[in-house]
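It is worth pausing here to work through a concrete case rather than discussing structure prediction in the abstract. The textbook approach is simple: state the sequence, then state the predicted structure, then interpret. We follow exactly that order.
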Amino acid sequence: MPAHRRWTPSGPYDLARSLSVLRRGPGDPSFQVTADGAIWRASRTPQGAGTIRLVGRGEAVEAQAWGPGADWLLEHLPALLGAEDDPSAFTPRHRLVHQAHRRHPGLRLIRTGLVLESLIPSILEQKVTSDEAYRAWRLLLQRHGEPAPGPAERMRVMPDPRAWALIPSWEWHRAGVDAKRSSTVLRAVRAARRLEEAAAMDLPAASARLQAIPGIGPWTAAETLQRSNGTPDAITVGDLHLPRIIGYALTGERGTDDAAMLELLAPYAGQRHRAARLILLSGRVPPRRAPRFSVRDFRAI
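Step two, the predicted structure:
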């Protein structure tokens, strides 16, 4: 029998929007949305593999969990759903941001408390298209993860650190992951315990802890801590698209770089990640001038 917990948020709450950042592509084996609107997540917790099912019931969220990690997942349920987030600390400074903030009052910045779970797919997303990274994550979990506890079909829990370390080089190649990214994952899992400690650190200390691993820079650290720590100021720097989107949304100008983006977001100091999330939700993006990057197939190299 699954374990149960019910949580009632204070104020408006958008379950699907808040948790959407945890989904790594439409075929993510660790994340599933079923026809009844329930959200399922399979995680590798400190207590072992666990699966959690979340569904909104009126003003509350009801959770069921299975597996050795079930109790851990339910204990950390409020943080996962954004209970530690404080949207009242945010003040919109631009008309577009104000409109997005008003349209999405239920957005919460979630906190999983699990660093590797967000770090490894973020490493896979370095310097490649999203489709390439999503495919790699899907293939690696399908081949080297374990079946998720509970009744969810075709869901997988990511490998534990030892299992990641034992993946042979040809399996990384088969998943389309180049040697630079696979080597970074291997360095990360060898330091798994130290990296997981970052979940309890403030942003500067957590970012420094992650970036102590060669191959992990500011981009990867921010993408990880946004999810594991729910840090409202963890703005992503070094992204190909984000500065251009934010620059266009706030000024109508193209070609914004990281420095200009940070200047535009300076009024949101302490809340820059939340501001960026709202800007992305506004849907105001620069019209495409060039075709999308084609998906490279490293398996053919």
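Step three, interpretation. The chain has a mean pLDDT of 95. The two ends are 48 Å apart (CA to CA).
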